[in-house]
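Supplementary Note 3. Input sequence used for the single-chain structure prediction.
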Amino acid sequence: MEGTFSSRRFAIIGAGKVGTAIGHILQKKGFNIVAVASRSQESLDRAQEFIYGYKTQNVVEAAKLADAILITTNDDQVEPVCRKIAQYGGFDSEDIVFHVSGALSTDVLNTARAFGAKGGSVHPLQSFATVEGAVCHLPGSVFGITAEEEILPLAREIVEALGGSAVVVKDENKALYHAAACVASNYFVSLIHFAQSIYGDLGVSKEIALKALLPLIKGTLANIESQGTAAALTGPIARGDMGPIKKHLTAFDGKIPEKKKLYCELGKYTTLVALEKGTISEDKQKELYQILQGGAHGS
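The predicted structure, written as discrete structure tokens, is reproduced below.
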């Protein structure tokens, strides 16, 4: 288990957006990518544009060529792929195996550990729509790393090579760590879609609604970046202004009652943010919360 990651032979198992981008960046930094494996020939053909070298649909063959294996498949395939490689002798005691899942613990690599390999995870806290986007946005990202003490420095080394910074996440905390990321990214998209749909109920097209919302969204994100979340909160709840909230609830009842509950649940949480900001008192927070609580239950 001596040497640095950069001196090892790498195999990328899974040629999706993240795996291809990671392989591309590492190769540009001088890492030895000896193989890229994927079940999909189409994915391998696309990866060829970003990573030069050997491509195969045989994951076991790719693993045997390497002593540092990055399993970059989707979450449901990590454990089966690891098990298959182990079953056909693809791991030994000199190997290091990482997956890039945010939700999965490192227990999914136990079939590799049974052969003496060391296992961990390196997860980028980032959203990727394309390989090009991943190549662009991986540098500067924070990575959640989970690894045995012996290979933790090597996990940090790969994050540094990718231009990121690392935060250690314990195995038992992986699910909630990933849940927070889903809230910030996936549910953020759903939140904007929710606002867009309300405008749609008023006869505004999706395109115009999004055009109207984007400056507000960008301004809010800029405030969050410069001031933090609580300090960036504005609006009637942050002011303790109950009049607009009551009007909102009445309007939901009259036009789109099916969307009232989600509005109220978001508002209830927002009262806690406003309290943290210090712009409303505890009594005002409780009063606003009760109004929204009643709205959420249809009263």
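The chain has two domains: 5-173, 184-296. DSSP finds 15 helices and eight strands in the chain.
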